[in-house]
Amino acid sequence: MESARRAASSLQQTRSQEGDLEGNGGSKRPYEPILENGDIHQYVPILFQLRFRHLAVVTVSLPCFAFLFCIIYSFFHHYDLVTRTHCNVWNVAPSISASIGNFAPQKYVWKVCIALHSAPRLLICQMYHTHMQKVLKRDGFIQQFALFTCTLNVAEVFSLLLLSVVPSVEDFTLHKLCFGSFLFFSAFFIASSFYLFSCHRISPGSHLDRQSLYYKKVLLMTNFSAILVAMYCYWRHNTYCEPGMYSIFSVFEYTVVLSNMAYHFTSYYDFYHVQFVFSLPEIVKLIESD
Q: Is residue 70 a contact partner of residue 110, using CB atoms and an 8 Å limit?
């Protein structure tokens, strides 16, 4: 280890001298050490570094912005159309399905934002699988259940993509199937991931882990309660055609969507210290920093 430190110090001094020889325009790019047999073999330039918590903020901001934009824009520009139902009774809150899929520019904003946020979501699915393998008990059933949980997360992402691509006005049956699949996969992922992290961790974890678990618990209860109330209101609307009932359904539908986004945002705390390092020849590496 001492020889490695001396080699690192010597190589850093060499890099510094090379930079000085280049003058004020010399490169200040940081370097990533490559180890061979415990000794530093060479340094490669770091192309780019990105903290996961910044990626998490961007990832949740895309669907959140699209959701708020579609609802608000529809309320002010297509109010009569997005609050109309087969019952022809008074309503005030726009329907999510009508707001995101029936009119321009809302449907384009929604599709673009959902498509852009899907790639980071799939990356997070893989990160959670790796994370669960490390922090959960080594029991075979628990590890298999963790894999199943991450598979539910992937299925949720693709259900949301298909739900966004196929609006209700084009194919109501397929849209309804995708929405039901999204709710199913989302609810089971939320329940199973909370169960694993709350009951089968090897250790209680750090303060951030406990904070993340607390938020998961609150959001799980919020999400499930909103789903039940929304289902009840939807049934009452279709059965009795009561004025305003579809608006109550829409409000709880908003709660389901927003609590789902917030639950996935708890990855901000789960991977708070993780950063992506893009360098040659490895291209990308995940490391944890204090």
A: yes
In the 3-class helix/strand/coil scheme, how is 83-126 assigned residue by residue?
CCCCCCCCCCCCCHHHHHHCCCCHHHHHHHHHHHHHHHHHHHHH
Return the C-alpha torsion angle 235, 239, 240, 241, nearest 10. Answer: 80
Name the packing angle between helices 140-165 and 172-199 (round to 10°). 150
Closest C-alpha to 47, from 274, 288, 282, 280: 280
Summarize pLDDT for 2-49 with one digit per residue, the tens.
544 454 454 444 444 444 434 444 445 565 555 444 444 455 677 778
Residue 149: its pLDDT value, please? 97
- Which of 153, 133, 135, 152 is closest to 143 using CA atoms? 133
Q: Are 183 and 155 in contact (CB under 8 A)?
A: no
Would you state the pLDDT for residue 44? 60
Triad 46, 48, 52: Cα angle to 5°: 125
* 34-38, 113-117, 236-240: the lowest-pLDDT one: 34-38
**How many CB atoms are located within 10 Å of the residue 23 CB?**
7
